[in-house]
Amino acid sequence: MAALNGLLRAGAAVRRPTAAARRWISSLASSEADTRVAASLARQAMPGRRDPGSRNVQWVFLGCPGVGKGTYASRLSQLLGVPHIATGDLVREELASSGLLAQQLADTVNQGKLVSDEIIIDLLSKRLENGEAKGESGFILDGFPRTIRQAEILEGVTDIDLVVNLKLREDVLLAKCLGRRICSQCGKNFNVASINIKGENGRPGMFMAPLPPPAQCISKLFTRADDTEEVVKERLRIYHETSQPVEEFYRSRGKLLEFDLPGGIPESWPKLLQVLNLEDHDDKQSAAA
């Protein structure tokens, strides 16, 4: 806990990237998009734009697709007053647009494949530039970095305080992904899966209640095109192959916190706050994983 507290305290005094780091990242960046996201992250890291009493944290959330990164990162962003930037949301926003990338992204996502580094970096750079224009400072990144190259770009321009790696058993992950539903009117996420796995052979049980929609949303629910068993299993396979080097990258730097989700939000949220040494005085919101 002492080591974690040190990481949390570091979030209150974000270090400005050195000139050497700026030159290094310029040589690493192999495209215009790389350079743009590097510059945006460097400017986001500069202190002095937030209330001195606020916690200008720079955190990363890792975890398999469907584990709940968005849920917990979003809650923490509200609690700490920093933006939650999810690359998955950026991809979905682009898919919903009429942009040139939309069809290319649709083909990639529907096959369960990972979107290329170049596209992710381009989308992230645009989001950071828009946030910078609004005066945002600090961030919780969700879905980035997912490759060593991305981690090196991030490491070269700013000092990440903490990397939270959410973990959940694969049979539960599959059930959660297949139970996801989205309301076409309000855009909120819900989950119809009722997960109740009994413990056996020394393995603990797992209970996750469904997250049902309100009456006005029931007739407007739809399932994401990529939430099929075949595609979800392929996404998980690819994630496990690519995530190990990134996890080791942060583990070797003493920044990785591995958190096994014990159940749904009611069981997991208080325990996550406990290991992060945080308190939520207004824990009344409802979120969907």
Automatic annotation (TrEMBL):
Q: What is its EC number?
A: 2.7.4.3
Read off the InterPro entries from this record.
Adenyl_kin_sub, Adenylat/UMP-CMP_kin, Adenylat_kinase_CS, P-loop_NTPase
Superkingdom of this entry's organism?
Eukaryota
| CDD domains for the chain | ADK
One Pfam family assigned to this protein is ADK
- Sorted UniProt keywords: Kinase, Nucleotide-binding, Transferase
Q: Name one GO molecular function term.
A: AMP kinase activity
Q: What class of enzyme is it?
A: transferase
What is this enzyme's catalytic activity, as reactions? AMP + ATP = 2 ADP
Family statement drawn from the similarity comment of this UniProt entry: Belongs to the adenylate kinase family.
Q: What is this protein called?
A: adenylate kinase
Q: Which organism is it from?
A: Phoenix dactylifera
